[in-house]
Amino acid sequence: MPTEKHLPIFVYGTLKRGEVRERMWPRGAVLIEEATARGRLFDLGSYPALADGDDVIRGELWHVREEDLPVTLDSLDAIECYGNEEVDLYVRRIIECRTLGGDVRRAYTYLFANPDELDGVLVVMPDDDGFCRWSGRGRQS
User: Fold this and answer.
1) Helices and strands of the chain, counted as H and E runs
2) Deepest in the core among 5, 21, 34, 55, taking most CB within 10 A?
3) Cα-Cα-Cα-Cα dihedral sign, residues 97, 113, 49, 70
């Protein structure tokens, strides 16, 4: 059982495998699991935003070595504009996720810092399988 200090990281957008920021992870994962989390997913064009909600969001749990977690979180914090700007774009939180195999995991993720600013933004609706997924693959920058 991971400690609060050593948790996987749930990603749902540009940091997933095959997306534009996949190569920005500072350390490789020892395991990547397909997983879901509850929330509301918004499409901001070149990246998504996750807010509180009840939809089932499909993403990935990235497990890094315990000794790599601090540098990984520092790097992801910078990418997500958390804790290094006057105003945060995202905030890092611990949430509950579920692997596709049904195991429950606690994980770090990044939620949109100002959900009131999401009024009128396109909501990513569930697919036929009931999952909300964001993908920037194939988009023009």
Assistant:
1) 1, 6
2) 55
3) negative
